[in-house]
């Protein structure tokens, strides 16, 4: 049984912040990432939470990410914002963009945010959820270093490339939050199994010749299995066009890994669309989403994307989160 220690969300945020700053990250860059880490742990996505803090710290120290970067924002057209992350953390670049994206979308009905020269943005749904909480339909894309081979091939050309869409609800909480990668499972889950010395299920990853494997280390040297076969490859290509080509970021085939210290900054990208539903549907959107959600929830055992995270988040607010003690030890070692 894995040893754990329960921490409050505030404790998780402050521990993350202190470790990032100790590694050489500015307070302005560390705080958004620490807040997101606590939220990610609350949602039960441990593979993207505190377990990533030692990796972030290592990448600041080796220069894969610039912890002192100051994102540069430009409004290039009415309704279009671009942010150059300057090889820094995606979270502070996204924060800077959202400060203008949200009011712009409310005013104009729709607005776009393009981010380049960025880094791993963590859980993409965390960001689209924030747009939904602001009353907007949030749509997001982020590309990653190549890890999925094309249909009929074996050499990776696109990343696990998640997309996300969050719908605003009447109570301010998104009733539907879709957040999924183009692979059967997020690569971070395979990395987590490798760190813990655990086998992975068949169907998660392939070896370097395109054959199924249960060894996470073999899978990490091969490719991730696309979700739904060729359809998953199609999703990955869609996201690559939106998050890399459309933003001017680095394609996954040229991006350095999000793990390890080799290769310098990955310079990947993110792309967000924010839509005010009142501009497109009048006052009908909320009712339509409510009807859609009810059609699912009235079925015994049925659930919507995001339901699990919402329940875990509510519990974490009062009960805290059980955190792996080995992970905590690695983070506390950064503090000296």
How would you characterize this protein structure?
The protein is α+β, with helices and mostly antiparallel strands and 336 residues long. The protein has twelve helices and twelve strands. The strands form three sheets. It has a seven-stranded mixed beta sheet with strand order 2-3-4-11-5-6-7. The protein has a three-stranded antiparallel beta sheet with strand order 9-8-10. β3 (80-84), α4 (90-108) and β4 form a beta-alpha-beta unit. α1 runs antiparallel to α2 (27-42) and α1 runs parallel beside α3. It is globular and about 50 Å long. The mean pLDDT is 95.
User: What proportion of the residues is helical, as a percent range?
Assistant: 40-55%
Beta-strand proportion: 15-25%
Return the structural class. alpha+beta
Work out the radius of gyration.
Answer: 19 Å
Query: What is the straight-line distance between the termini?
Result: 28 Å
Q: How do the SSEs run, as a string of H and E?
A: EHHHEEHEHEEEHEEHEHEHHHEH
Low-confidence stretches: none
Shape: globular
Can you list the strand order of the major beta sheet? 2-3-4-11-5-6-7
* Average pLDDT figure: 95
What is the tally of helical segments?
Answer: 12
Summarize this, please?
This protein has 336 residues and is α+β, with helices and mostly antiparallel strands. It is 42% helix and 17% strand.
Q: What descriptive keywords fit this protein?
A:
alpha+beta, 336 residues, 12 helices
List the helices and strands and how they pair.
Elements (H helix, E strand, L loop, with lengths): L3 E4 L1 H14 L4 H16 L10 H10 L9 E6 L2 E5 L5 H19 L1 E9 L5 H10 L3 E6 L20 E5 L8 E5 L6 H10 L8 E2 L5 E2 L2 H6 L1 E2 L5 H16 L22 E8 L1 H5 L3 H13 L9 H13 L1 E4 H10 L2
């Amino acid at each position: 049984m894995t040893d754990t220690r329960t921490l409050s969300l505030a404790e998780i945020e402050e521990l993350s912040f202190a470790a990032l700053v100790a590694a050489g990250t500015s307070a302005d860059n560390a705080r958004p990432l620490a807040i997101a880490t606590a939220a990610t742990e609350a949602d039960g996505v441990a593979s993207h939470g505190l377990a990533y803090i030692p990796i972030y710290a290592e990448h600041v120290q080796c220069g894969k990410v610039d912890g002192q970067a100051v994102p540069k924002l430009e409004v290039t057209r009415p309704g279009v914002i671009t942010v150059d992350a300057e090889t820094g953390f995606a979270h502070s670049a996204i924060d800077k963009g959202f400060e203008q994206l949200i009011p712009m979308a409310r005013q104009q009905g729709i607005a776009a945010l393009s981010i380049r020269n960025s880094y791993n943005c963590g859980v993409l749904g965390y960001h689209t959820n924030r747009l939904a909480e602001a009353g907007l339909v949030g749509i997001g894309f982020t590309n990653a270093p190549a890890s999925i081979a094309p249909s009929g091939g074996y050499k990776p050309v696109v990343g696990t490339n998640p997309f996300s869409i969050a719908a605003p609800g009447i109570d301010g909480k998104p009733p539907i939050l879709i957040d999924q990668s183009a692979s059967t499972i997020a690569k971070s889950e395979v990395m987590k199994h490798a760190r813990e010395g655990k086998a992975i299920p068949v169907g998660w990853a392939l070896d370097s010749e395109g054959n199924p494997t249960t060894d996470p280390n073999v899978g990490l040297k091969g490719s991730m299995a696309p979700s739904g076969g060729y359809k998953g490859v199609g999703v990955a290509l869609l996201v690559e066009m939106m998050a890399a080509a459309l933003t001017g970021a680095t394609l996954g085939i040229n991006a350095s890994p999000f793990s390890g210290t080799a290769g310098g900054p990955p310079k990947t990208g993110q792309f967000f669309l924010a839509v005010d539903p009142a501009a497109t549907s009048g006052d009908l959107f909320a009712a339509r989403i409510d009807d859609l959600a009810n059609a699912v929830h009235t079925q015994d055992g049925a659930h919507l994307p995001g339901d699990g995270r919402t329940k875990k988040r509510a519990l974490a607010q009062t009960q805290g989160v059980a955190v792996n003690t080995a992970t905590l030890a690695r983070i506390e070692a950064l503090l000296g």
